[in-house]
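Residues determine shape. We examine one folded chain.
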Amino acid sequence: MTPHPRLWDVAIGASAAAIVGCGVYATMWPASQWFGKSLIAGNNADEIALTFDDGPNGDTTARLLDKLARYNVKATFFLVGKYVLAQPELARRMVAEGHTVGNHTMTHPRLLALGPVATKLEISDAQSAIADTVGVAPRLFRPPFGGRWPYTMAAAHAQGLMPVMWNAMGMDWRLTDPGRIAARLLTDIHHNRAKGTASNLLLHDGSHKGLGWDRNPSLGAVARILQSQGARAKFVTVESWL
């Protein structure tokens, strides 16, 4: 029996929506492993990794490094290559003080809009810029906006990089209240601990929109996280989970 035309259209529409939904999940959702392995977090529920994207960013990054030093906490910084070239002293300070630096592409584009060749150049140019500046080749890669295609993963692997996502998100690119940012992260830490996994916190010390971006709310949230976790938490770098 031939299906009714309208029912057939509905079925096709539903199938198309399902395919689109699966595609969005595969490319954007932090937990997705469809296009290849991404590192999320370790298995020690007491471990917390503070990660910061889009730097280095002038005085904001310098003050963040001062704060981390006071608490003797090491963090992971995913650096934009063009900002590293503009502020090499900050990138070198990160490494000198024991922090881990990762690759966050050269210019922070939306990789889902780029083809394989441009994606490869974004990653390889950043890798060279960071390695030449700090003397250490990054081992970690965080795709801008979390976007991944199969060729994104291939380009990262070609540089010896492990893609890294997150499982705790402060939404500090939108929220301006340090308390709200910290509250979101602490809630995610609680949920991760309940599941028996470590927490990989996504924060920003810079912005893809340009240098000098105000990240004081993020710094305030970091202070609350460091103060609230006490002796139980073990702050680690993402590299320790490789």
The first strand starts at residue 47 and ends at 55. Strands lie at 47-55, 76-79, 100-103, 140-141, 162-163, 168-169, 199-204, 234-236. The chain has two domains: 1-30, 47-241.
